[in-house]
Structures are given as C-alpha cells and as structure tokens.
Design a protein that fits this description.
Chain A has one domain. By secondary structure, chain A is mainly alpha-helical. Helix content of chain A is about 80%, strand content about 0%. Chain A is built from 5 helices and no strands. Chain B is mainly alpha-helical. Chain B has one domain. Chain B is built from 6 helices and no strands. The mean pLDDT of chain B is about 75. The chains are: A mainly alpha, B mainly alpha.
C-alpha cells in the first residue's frame, strides 16, 4: 500500500470513528429522553457515559485534524505534486455538500425544541441540549461526507 | 435587462429581504438584553423569558408573509423562464451551486459555534439563560446563511463581469 493510500485510509477510518462516537452519544441522548436513565445504568453509571464519550469524541477530532495536517505537510514536502491529488475538487465539494444536511438538522432540532412548547406547552427540558445538538451535527456532517464520498468514488 | 439577469436580480432581492428579516430577528434578541437587565436588576445571562414574545411573533409573521410574496413571484417567473433547456443550463451553473453550499457551511459553523458557547456556559456556569436560546441560534444561523449567500453571489457576479 502506498503512503497516499495509507493516508487516505487512516483519514477515512478516523472519520468513521468520529461518526460512530457521535452516533453513540446521540443515541444515548435519545435513550435518555425516551426511557430515562434508569434503563442505561447497566452500561455506565449516571452521567459517566456522556463524559467518557464526549472526551473520546473531542480527542479523536483534535487528533485526526492534527495528524492530517502534519501528515499532509510531510507528504507534500517530499512530493509537492501530491497536494493537488489530496486536496482535489471532489473532496472539497463533498465536504461542502455535507454541511447542508448538518445545518438543516441543527435548525430542525432548534425548532423542534421550541414549537411543541409554544403550541401545546409541552415541556422540553433536556439537560445538555447543546451537547445533543452538537453530537447530532457532528454525526450528520461526518455521515453525509462519508456517504457523498462513497457515492463519488463509485461514480 | 435579459431574463437571466432578471432572475438573478429577483433572487438577490429575495435573499436581501430574508437577510434583513433574520438580522432584525437576531438583533431583537441581542439588543434588548442590557435594557432588560437594567430594568429587572438581573444579569444579562439570567433573564426570564417571555418579555417580547408578541413583538417577536408579529415580526416573524410579517417577515414570512413578505418572503412568501417575493419567493412566489421569483419562482413563478423562474418556472416560466426555465422551460427552455438552454436557459436552464445557463442559470443552474456549477459555481452558483458551490456558492450555495459555501453559504450552508458558514451557517453551520455559526450555529455550531453558538452551541459550543452555550455548552461552555451549561457546563461551567449556571447556564446561559438567554430568553429563547433556540430562536437565538436559529436566527443567527439563518442570518449567516442569507448573508453568506449574498456575499458569495456578489463575488461570483463580480468575477463574471
């Protein structure tokens, strides 16, 4: 396997890891909203699950960004022509496309948290609501990028 | 003025209207905070909600009605113009699509940034008790989206010229 393939493969695995972490976090939030914490005590003690996953997610995002930056620097120093291969137009467009569903999801969560309260006075009292929105946003962003990337690779 | 230029101009007027409306909604949430704080004697991050809900709803409804009128006008004209396939190709070019996507990115990053700030306040302070925090972040996201769309469209228009 060439250095270029390895670089792209590790980046892809990193993104899949971030996607899975954020999905787990979002799933736990939904679980908590729907069934309360009593049913997830067997997985983790109260609040511990959030803390562990948030730290893992944050560290993996930072690590992947730093690793990619440094590795890109090393690779392009050795071979400047690789820059155009790695930073191609398709990948950039796929990232841009991925921002669209993530933005709509954030907007929908915000409206969904407000409109039932306004109309039916239904209390929406979710602790760490920002964390819920952020985990959903990261999940959609990475998931949409992986989806578009896979589709353009097939094409 | 040819039909394509007219479409661009109408789209721009829809965007500018949406930008002004969302900016006004966002500004209404930000500007009264110090005054409400002085009146109620509470810090700006710990104010009770439901202060200016009526004005907010009226402004929101008026904005939506105005936008609907402009958008209906725009889409009717666009639909009648784009029956011609050559015209369709001329309007839906790749650069315009990329500009819309860049606007989505800007809006997403704004909303995510606001949520990170909220998260910091939730975990380190007593919680940023902004009145209608969800409206705050939504209107900021929409405001950035329309602003970025206007900015990027202007940029590509200058390049075309």
């Amino acid at each position: 396997m060439s250095a270029l393939e390895r670089f792209e493969r590790i980046g892809l695995f990193g993104l899949i890891g971030i996607f899975l972490c954020s999905t787990l976090l979002f799933g736990l939030f939904l679980f908590r909203i729907l069934y309360s914490w009593n049913h997830v005590h067997f997985i983790f003690p109260r609040e511990k699950a959030f803390q562990v996953i948030v730290v893992v997610l944050f560290l993996s995002i930072v690590f992947l960004a730093m690793w990619r930056h440094l590795r890109l620097k090393t690779l392009t120093e050795k071979n400047p022509s690789l820059r155009s291969v790695l930073k191609d137009e398709h990948t950039r467009t796929n990232w841009l496309k991925a921002f669209r569903p993530a933005f709509f999801l954030l907007l929908t969560i915000q409206l969904a948290s407000k409109i039932p309260t306004m109309i039916w006075h239904w209390p929406w009292d979710v602790p760490y609501q920002s964390l819920l929105s952020l985990s959903a946003a990261v999940m959609t962003l990475t998931g949409a990028f992986l989806f578009y990337n896979r589709r353009s690779a097939h094409e | 003025m040819n039909k394509i230029e007219r479409i661009y101009r109408m789209r721009r007027s829809v965007l500018i209207c949406a930008f002004i409306c969302s900016l006004f909604l966002f500004g209404m949430l930000c500007i009264p905070l110090p005054f409400l704080s002085l009146l109620s004697g509470r810090p700006p991050w710990n104010l009770p909600g439901n202060y200016y809900m009526a004005i907010y709803v009226i402004t929101g409804v008026l904005s939506v009605v105005l936008l609907l009128i402009l958008m209906t006008r725009y889409f009717l004209f666009r639909a009648s113009t784009l029956k011609d396939p050559d015209m369709r190709r001329a309007v839906d070019d790749e650069r315009i699509r990329i500009n819309w996507l860049r606007a989505y990115r800007a809006a997403f990053l704004t909303m995510a940034g606001i949520h990170v700030i909220f998260l910091f306040f939730e975990s380190h302070l007593y919680g940023l008790g902004l009145p209608h925090a969800a409206w705050f972040s939504s209107s900021a996201g929409l405001w950035t989206y329309f602003g970025a769309a206007i900015f990027y469209t202007r940029e590509s228009k200058n390049e075309r010229a």
